[in-house]
Design goal:
Blueprint: H1 8-16, E1 36-40, E2 43-47, H2 57-64, E3 70-75, H3 79-98, E4 106-111, H4 126-137, E5 141-143, H5 152-189
Parallel strand pairs: 3-4, 4-5
Antiparallel strand pairs: 1-2
Length: 191
């Protein structure tokens, strides 16, 4: 997201190493971390941890142009992160459209669900915000806790399944288009 301190790096660390020891002393990611490969049920997935600060938007958007999927993270104790998630969803669509690239799978992740009902800073309407963003941008939403290491594996598997489904749909459309072109060519040459 355009916002820092929602737990992207902690989610990233948990995704890579479920035995990673959680710490509250994480530093903000500066621009882009080096990639790490995560094994999934469908094969390897390369993960990049991108800084959430506005000043890194140009760098992050350059990576989006080459991405096969995108995970947008908000935190239920941070309203601004939900506003930023909406901006990112819109920005991703614009980046994809400007590069005439096929749509990429995007998932919306709400981190820090371990705080729900236990912290005065938790947004009262976070579930409504989650549903609004998920519905508006037609993206699946996942609830995770980097602290408790819950929901992260399921979210990553969901990303993999969604990416595979979208890739197969693109191949099906291209194949269908090729058949149509071949039929046209065949019928025009027989005249």
């Amino acid at each position: 997201t355009h916002y820092s301190y929602v737990g992207k790096t902690s989610i990233f660390q948990r995704a890579v190493d479920p035995k990673w020891k959680f710490t509250h002393e994480m530093l903000a990611t500066i621009a882009i971390s080096k990639p790490v490969v995560k094994r999934t049920s469908e094969g390897p997935m390369k993960l990049w941890d991108c800084g959430g600060q506005e000043r890194f938007f140009n760098i992050t958007s350059a990576f989006l142009r080459q991405a096969d999927a995108c995970i947008i993270v908000s935190s239920l104790d941070n309203k601004t992160s939900f506003d930023s998630a909406s901006r990112w969803m819109s920005d991703i669509r614009n980046i994809v459209k400007s590069k005439q690239k096929e749509a990429i799978p995007v998932v919306f992740v709400i981190n820090k669900i371990d705080l729900d009902g236990k912290n005065e800073f938790v947004m009262k309407d976070w579930k409504a915000q989650e549903e609004r963003i998920s519905r508006k941008y037609d993206v699946p939403a996942y609830r995770v806790s980097a602290l408790l290491n819950t929901g992260i594996h399921e979210m990553l598997e969901g990303v993999v399944v969604l990416e595979k489904k979208m890739r197969q749909e693109r191949l099906r459309r291209r194949s269908s288009l090729m058949r149509k072109l071949m039929r046209r060519k065949s019928s025009s040459s027989s005249i």
